[in-house]
Amino acid sequence: MGVAKTSRGWGAWPLTLFVLQRSIELSLPWKVKAMTTATSAASAPEAMAHSAPILSLNNIEVVYDRVILVLKGVSLTVPSGGIVALLGANGAGKTTTLKAISNLLHSERGEVTKGSIVFNGAEVHALSPNEMVRRGCIQVMQGRHCFGHLSIEENLLTGAFTRRDGSAAIHAELGKVYGYFPRLAERRNALAGYTSGGEQQMCAIGRALMSRPKMILLDEPSLGLAPQVVDEIFTIMRNLNHGEGVSLLLAEQNANIALNFATYGYILENGRVVLDGAAETLRNNEDVKEFYLGIAEGRRKSFRAGKHYKRRKRWLA
């Protein structure tokens, strides 16, 4: 009798605890799975934020003098910390695209009439150029445009005009620029107007770096420079990209060096993006080889045959 009473009373608790323990153990894998799913869902936006582009152009159109339509629905993206090439012949719209991003169009009576320009998560096509520089986007103009009557160091210091973090930080940045461009350190007191084209291009890039940019827009950096100087400048820019994490959008006619330098490329023609893809893919594209690299049927063409194409551009077919 005593045993039966115990089994109905306090003696039933061990069995109840055993059942509860087993239930918890069996449900634990499902809880772990649910927690993992929730964690993955929470971390997904963070992963997307890290992979989000620093610059995005969405179907923009640019008009000069309210009459001349130059860009016709251009869309492109630049990943954060990436290098993107913008290729095309003279008049294709490369410089106009860069000026639309840096908001320098108004000085030439141009305006973005359609589409959107998003930089670092914010729409920026209505901002002034100096506001764009403060936000971290700066353009190195075609033709260098150094102040010829100022010294190299004075030119570099003009790039820090929008900064408000004190002279100590500015001089520390100046030392960093001299570290990337040792030749500028040697010529720091020389008037920029009496330096070589390569030194002026280095000065223009160094001046842009003085603003501590997140992204640099490079317009024809190889224009008028010797091949050895071009290689030196592009090597320094690659080191800047790797060392400082600065994103680069490069407008260039020299498709060969641009596609070796960049990881992704867009080809502009008559104000439209006609082809885009990974740089290696574009280098191996037969149309790109013939029309932009001067290579047909696996060999370089002569100058006389330069305009006698055996292929028709697929985007014109």
Question: Would you write up a description of this structure?
Answer:
The chain has 317 residues and is an alpha/beta fold. The protein has two domains: 53-284, P-loop containing nucleotide triphosphate hydrolases (Rossmann fold, 3-Layer(aba) Sandwich), CATH 3.40.50.300; 285-317, no CATH class. Helix content is 43%, strand content 23%. Strand 4 (110-119) and strand 5 (122-123) form a beta hairpin. Helix 5 (152-158) packs parallel to helix 8 (197-209). The radius of gyration is 29 Å and the shape is globular.
Secondary-structure blueprint:
Blueprint: H1 2-8, H2 13-51, E1 53-64, E2 68-79, E3 83-87, H3 94-102, E4 110-119, E5 122-123, H4 129-135, E6 137-140, H5 152-158, H6 167-180, H7 182-186, H8 197-209, E7 215-219, H9 227-244, E8 247-252, H10 255-261, E9 264-269, E10 272-278, H11 279-283, H12 286-291, E11 295-296, E12 299-300
Parallel strand pairs: 3-8, 3-9, 6-7, 7-8
Antiparallel strand pairs: 1-2, 1-4, 4-5, 9-10, 11-12
Helix pairs in contact: 5-8
Q: On the 0-100 scale, what is the average pLDDT?
A: 81
What is the alpha-carbon Rg in Å? Answer: 29 Å
Tell me the name of the CATH class of the largest domain. Answer: Alpha Beta
Distance between the termini: 100 Å
Helix/strand order, N-terminal first = HHEEEHEEHEHHHHEHEHEEHHEE
Oligomer: single chain
Strand order of the largest sheet: 6-7-8-3-9-10
Number of helices: 12
CATH superfamily of the largest domain: P-loop containing nucleotide triphosphate hydrolases
How many domains? The number is 2
CATH second-level architecture of the largest domain: 3-Layer(aba) Sandwich
Unreliable residue runs = 1-20, 23-50
Strand content: 15-25%
Number of strands: 12
The biggest sheet, with number of strands, parallel, antiparallel or mixed sense and barrel status, is: 6 strands, mixed
Describe the global form.
globular
Fraction of residues in helices?
Answer: 40-55%
Q: Within the CATH hierarchy, at the fold level, what is the topology of the largest domain? A: Rossmann fold
Structural class: alpha/beta
